[in-house]
Amino acid sequence: MVVVAFDNGGSTIKAGILGHPTAVDPRIVVNAVIRSKGDKATYVGHELDKCKDYSSLNYRLPVEKGYVVDWDAQKAIWDGVLSDEVLNVNPTESTLLMTEPYFNLPKIQQVYDQFIFEEYEFQAHFRSSPASLIPHGSLFGLPPPECMIIVDSGFSFTHVVPVMEGKVVWSAVKRLDVGGKLLTNQLKELVSFRQWNMMEETFIMNHVKETCCFVSQDFKKDIEICRENVKTNSIVQEYVLPDLTKSKAGRVRQPDDIALDTDQVLTMGNERFAVPEIIFRPDDIGLEQCGLAQAISASISLLPHDLQGMFWANIGLIGGNTKLTGFRDRLLSELQSLAPFGCDVVLYQSSDPTLDAYHSAIALASLPTFTSSVAVTRAEYLEYGSLAMRRKCPDWQPAPPPLREREPTTRDRDHGKESGRDRAPSGKDKKQDGTSLKRQESKGKGKAKAEQVETAPEPSRRTRVRAINPVGASSSGKRG
Amino acid sequence: MPSKRGREHHARQAHNPVAGLTSDVIAKRTKRHLDELERSNYAEHSAQVGEEDEEGKYTKGRARQLISEKRTFNIPGVKKKKSTMNVRTALLYRKNFAALLEESNLTAFPSTVPTYLTAQAPTSTYPSRLLCSVCGYWGHYKCRRCALPFCDLNCESVHAETRCERRVL
């Protein structure tokens, strides 16, 4: 059975097939439908490679604030990735492993299921957040630690996700609404006000951000350096904008470059470090959230006291923004001042943080039991609906799906939860005759660990996240 | 509304020389700025990509052509078939994130249940530092009319000429 892994991000999709060269070196497809005014053409996802004119590109992103909302665009892009132009995979004979954002809304989760099973008709499917996949990979070395914090800083936002024994501790997850998109837009504004109008040039400014920006280790000092001698100081750089008639790429001017008069140049002074500073101080632009270091500290403080030291010592960085020069050192120094006395702070980062979630997904997909028991098969979906997905996938859920005879808990009714549940009653009866494997898996907190020993010989992390979700009243009490 | 505020504040002009500049005006402006930073394209209200034909026709409503139908790809093994009701609904009726969030009714959960809303990072315990809106240095002084920070007289004059009045609602 062919297994396809998709890391479906806000800016790019990283996709590949297990056992194929793309498993190591995935195809990276921009997750957008882009119209180029210069070329007068629309490019869906991977077709952007054919684009000649990168100026004034109009982006239509299916992902808004990190969550898929525009399914028309998303389907078009997925069609492109599965087609013979990219991966050339037949969904009706494949298993799909996909990532989804943290705290994915139940209504959106259902639509994912519908597209994957009803439209593409994949044979089996498994979906989880990137942080849940990391324990399968080798970011922290092998074997992975029991307690870890994943800092996932991507296009749409930044999350601090504690993972304990392979399961995400949802009550301690913290989110900062600062992502690559916000940083690029802020850079566009600064440059447009001070120099050339670049408000429409998302693609170019994104490249400027990636080449010129860095994280300052000492903001006060750097801002003074930029002040004393605005034109020539150790920080200022000149970025030569791409010339569309001659070459495509923009670049930073090197000391030995010949300066042509026809060059359009952006002078990058304090913008170089003021923009990434927003991750560490969102209040610089008026966003009332604490910086990344304080968010990590706040997240750890919500965890069990005796384990906090272990969390401080296992912090992993994934996501595109962590590639900024100086990110790691700055974060380390800020955390060291926040960590309790005697706690070591250790940060882990791989050589390409954008691909970490993807590689961990491939590692999970390589497990022999993946297609047979970890993923949800199409047959299960057709029988139980989205409920089958909720049982097996460690996504966030407001309350665990009821196992047996659905006790009318007031909360369930009042808040009209996932309508996927309306198939539950019929599913339930069948369930009771169902495999003991499934029943044991769906037990709640505390018991989860004991049962796993009896079930298939695989790591405990495979079962769903239920651990620290103190959902009080919903007492479908007959567990066990 | 601004004029009413103007009248109310007339008496207090000695303290607050700016008519109409209360803290919620500033908060609204900051919020608008932050929303702008979340945009995918600068000219958001212009016709969306994919909904507009190359000739420039703009079709709305149920007859809207889906980009996923307009641009088809050759996926091995998948034959053209009619999509299910769920899928067609999802394709045609697009809701934005705010609407979906509203519908999910996350505020109805008890405070012990973690949700997208509770996961937001807490506010900062450090006082925010103001940076000059013109050049980016420390903004020690604030504009009298619109309360944006600036660092020195040069920047103040640039600010007054270019984007001062426009910022006030």
Automatic annotation (TrEMBL), chain A:
CDD domains noted in UniProt: ASKHA_NBD_Arp6 (cd10210)
Top-level taxon in the UniProt lineage: Eukaryota
Assigned keywords, A-Z: Cytoplasm
Gene Ontology cellular component terms for the protein in this record: cytoplasm; nucleus
Transmembrane parts of this sequence: none
Pfam families with a match to the protein in the record: Actin (PF00022)
Predominant cellular place of this UniProt entry's protein: cytoplasm
Location of this chain's protein in the cell: Cytoplasm
SMART domains recorded: ACTIN (SM00268)
InterPro entries listed in its UniProt record: Actin, ATPase_NBD
Residue ranges, compositional bias (Basic and acidic residues): 403-452
Region (Disordered): 392-480
Xref: PANTHER family: ACTIN
Functional summary from the UniProt entry: Component of the SWR1 complex which mediates the ATP-dependent exchange of histone H2A for the H2A variant HZT1 leading to transcriptional regulation of selected genes by chromatin remodeling. Involved in chromosome stability.
Subunit structure: Component of the SWR1 chromatin remodeling complex.
Annotated family: Belongs to the actin family. ARP6 subfamily.
Protein name: Actin-like protein ARP6
From TrEMBL, chain B:
Record's keyword terms, sorted: Metal-binding, Zinc, Zinc-finger
InterPro entries linked: Vps71/ZNHIT1, Znf_HIT
Stretches assigned to the HIT-type domain: 132-164
Cited PROSITE patterns: ZF_HIT
Pfam families: zf-HIT
GO terms for biological process, alphabetical: chromatin remodeling
UniProt feature, compositional bias: Basic and acidic residues: 33-42
GO cellular component terms attached to this protein's record: nucleus
Full protein name: Zinc finger HIT domain-containing protein 1
UniProt organism field: Favolaschia claudopus
